[in-house]
Structures are given as structure tokens and as C-alpha cells.
Amino acid sequence: MVIKIVLLIVFFAVMLGIGFYTRKHATNVGGFVLGGRAVGPWLTAFAYGTSYFSAVVFVGYAGQFGYKFGIASTWIGIGNAVIGSLIAWVVLGRRTRIMTKHLDSMTMPDFFGKRFDSKPLRVAASMIAFIFLIPYTASVYNGLSNLFGMAFDIPYEVCVIGMAVLTGIYVIVGGYMATALNDFIQGIIMLIGIVVVIVAVLSGHGGFIAAIKELAAVPSDVMPGAYASFFGPDPLGLFGVIILTSLGTWGLPQMVQKFYAIKDEKAVQTGTIISTFFAIVVAGGCYFLGGFSQISGIQAGADGAVQYDAIIPTMLSALPDILIGIVIVLVLSASMSTLSSLVLTSSSTLTLDFIKPLFKKDKMDEKGQVFIMRVFLAFFIIISVVIALDPPGFIAQLMGISWGALAGAFLAPFLYGLYMKRVTKAAVWASFIVGIGITVSNMIYPYIGSPINAGAIAMIAGLVIVPIVSFITPKPKQELVDDVFACLEEDVVVKRRVALPKED
Fold this sequence. Notes:
mainly alpha, about 0% strand
């Protein structure tokens, strides 16, 4: 217990210290929200990765999907690395940085407003982001507190409130740079911690081969050895999870906003490699570990329901205290980085895209905007804590609802808006309505069943609907489109090692 407490004290001291150290970067809106758009590749890549993976993945998703799909759940981590990190950086990274800088956009709703010349779109997007980031934040508190309860026997409510206060302090004080520097340190902890934990858990089952044999012996209604097979007992369900958790990041404001702050071309190239490696180790490791959930000792209750959120804590409870301490810091690192990203995104979006437009021009200065963002940071955290104290379901349900609504509404118009000139306002509205409609209606009446599959369907529907609606509605103004895409045609001078010269 002493070891665990000491590790926590050191961790919290470093996080808070960085928050106060970086407060000088948070004196204006650009510095508070984007770090002055001067964040290098390592900080950006780790900020992206640590915002991606939290207690929701380590405790909730790894436990639930590892239990359902067995060792095949590792494919989810591979999908996160390839689709959610590598391809996301290649497709979105450079264009997002160029176009958002050109439009002077600091948030995703602001991008929609300026890209499509529509204030109502910006306001609607800001409200969608604020509302549906709340269940995601609540799910992070939920997962973190379950693990803390196992390790310290501390009441769940105390854990939730304590994490909220600590996260709030360093984000409110230091803004984006505080989260970026903390994310880097937390990312290093995550990389080391996940490797140590996997080795320790497998050793407890006699090594990798022995654990696989034990997993293969678990009975299944599909086929013998299903939980140790290549695609597991439910390949279609596995595919839905891969789509939601991998492609979904392309439409999440807190993820895409990391590209806004990239410093230069080198940061994009280096960040792509670092982010992909990070995802392979962390996401691949989490889901690989979760793949052995069936042999963790968790049994279904009398009603046949399994407490998915208890699987990973149960797997880890038998580890030595020093390893449990490492796990606590690992999950705490993952969760606080995600929480800081979520609360910063939600408060900046609500302030810049909803509150600021209500004032007359020049009536709200930089200091006033930063102050209001800090107020909404606290407000957002309080709402999330209230939900987390009485969560409506297990972790994966909360996150599925959040990701499904946000990515279902935003992914298609944002992606097409970067590449396709023909996208219209009507198409963006259609994507908002369909994404939110599918997610919310499935919450009320689960005709699709799993919120995970509902979210995946919402995203795919948006990708289909946006181009169709764009081509059957009037074209946007040519002057607007030409101005938006002019930034991609500007000539820049680069060194010969970057690009070959044209032939004479």
C-alpha cells in the first residue's frame, strides 16, 4: 500500500507541477486551446495516442470485447493502429493543419461554420460536441474508479470526485500545453506499463502457450476453441467494434483538434510514425491482454449477465503490489490525458462557437474568452461527475453512445469538407441528423441492438449520405469554395531532400 501511495503522490505532483509551469502559454485563446499551433511531433503524437486510449479501453473495452471475442480482440488494437492512427494521420493530418490555419479555425464546429459559411452549423455542432462528450467523460471516470476501488478499497464516489478535481486543476491552469506535456509523460508510462502487465499476467498462467491452451479449452456455442481462434466466435461483431473504435476517431473533435496544433511538415511525418507505434503497443497490448478474459475467473451471474467492468481489475488483483501500483499509474495516465483532452475540447467549443457569437464584435476580449473557457471546464467536469456517480450501464455502452453520435454526425462532413469542393450545407445537416438520429433512437428503442454497431452504422451512413445529398442540392458559392481551397494551391519552397526539382 505504501508503494502504491508513493507512486500516486509522485504522479500527481508532476502533473500539477506541469500545469502551473505551462500557465504562461495559456494567457490567450490560441495558446490556451492550441498551444500557439507550435507543438512538435513527439508531443502531438503522444497527445493523440493518450487521448485515444484511456481507462475506457484498458478496463471497459479490453474486458468486454476480450471476453466476447477471445484472443481475436487483438484485431481491434491492430485496427486502431492502422486505421485510427496511421491512415488518420496520412489522410487528415496535413490538410487539417493547412485548412484550419487558413480559415483561422480553432475547433471542429468553427471549421464547419467557416468552411460552409454557416453560423447555424457552427452552433449546432458545438451543442452536439458538448452534449455527447459528457457520456464519454463519465465512462472514463467510471473505468478509472473501478480500478482504484480494487487497488485501494476506496469508495467509488471518492475516486470519481478526486480524479475530477486533479484533472480540472492542471487543465484550467495550463491549457493545451499542460495537457500536451503531461500526455508525453503519461504516454511513456503507458508504453512501459502495458508491456510489464502483459508479461506478469501471462506468467501467472504458465506463459503464453499455456494460456492459449487454457483459453482454447473454454467451451463455446460456435465451435471448439473459438476464443483462441483467428477471428473468434463472432467475426461480424468484431468488425463492428473495429470500425467504431478505429474509423470513429476521424470524427471526434478532441482527436482531430490535435492536428490543428501541429508545428510543421516534419512534425506531421514524424508524428505519423510515433503515433502508429504507440497505438500498436498500447491498443494492441490492451486488447491482447483482454483476450484472456475468459480465463480470468469471472463468471456470469444468475441472470446470465457478466460484469464486464470487473474483468480487468479481477485479472490484475492477483499481481504483486508493485505491479498493481504500476497498473494504477498506467491507467491513471491514460485516463487523465483523455479527460484533459475532453474537457478542454468541450469548453473551448462551447465558448468560441456558442457563447462568443452571442456578444457583439470586439465585446469579448482574449482574457474574457479564456476566463469563460475555464468556467465551462469546471462546469463540464461537474456534469460528467454527476453522470459517473450513477452511470446508466457499463463503460462500453457509454462510450459507444458518445463515439457513435459524434463520429456519425461529424466524420463524413469533416472528411469530405477537406477534400471535396462540392459538399453543401444541406449535406452537413443531413449527416448531423442521421448520426444523432440513429444513435439516440437506438438508445430509446434498440432496434440495432448494441450501441457499438449503431455507432458503426451511423458513421457508414454519413459517408454515403453526404455525397448523395451534395450532388442533389444546389452547389455552394464558387467564390467561397475557391477561397477555402486556395490555401492548398500556394507555392512553398522546400529543400531538395524533401522534393525532387522539376526537369528543365
